[in-house]
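Good morning C.,

I know you're traveling, so I'll keep this short. The sequence:
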Amino acid sequence: MTVCIVGNSHAGSLRLAYETLPDKANLQWDFFVAPNGYADAEGLRAIAYDAKRHAFLDFPYFSAAKGADLEIADYDCFVLVGAHHSAAHMVAMFPFDVSAGFRARAVQEICQKSRLFDFAQKIRAVSAVRILLVTKPAPTTIQRPGPQDIAAVQAVIETFWAKIRVEVLPQPAATMTAGGLTRADCFKSNANQHFTPEASAVAVDALRQVLIAPL
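The tokens, ready to paste straight into the viewer:
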């Protein structure tokens, strides 16, 4: 299976873990990482997309052997990493007393207006292959909302993306607390909320398992 992994610095963390795999030569994974990914205009310029050619052009940190210009049709699966808030991040955006209905509608609107949604639609417009979405890791702490709120928002996120056949991957359970947050020892530091090498290895293994079988 040929896999295109596109994203920001969180995709970079996965790539570092991938590079340590003893059997990586057996995997057909291409990583394309830009500092801001597809989260903003600068990131989209870094990860250039040619709509007429249906190709990605001149990726920074290019790691594949196929050349700089890659046709979307070359891939069996796309994995979009890091430019989407986790459910816990989204819960924390709203006041404690906001209604569940209002929050659900607001989460849907945030997803639909994101550049990530535009990016996924560009892929879906020319390809029916599998698309997986990996959110940024959940924070280690949030105020007030509990696991039920996080689960409810996660369900809204998954339902939204399913409309264009994008699967939202759950954060690996081994990196999380019972309350749905990231374990503090899985981040490099409070100021640098990227997975440690050990947690990144867990995330890469989880991705491998999902690629073997649907969620």
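Safe travels,
E.
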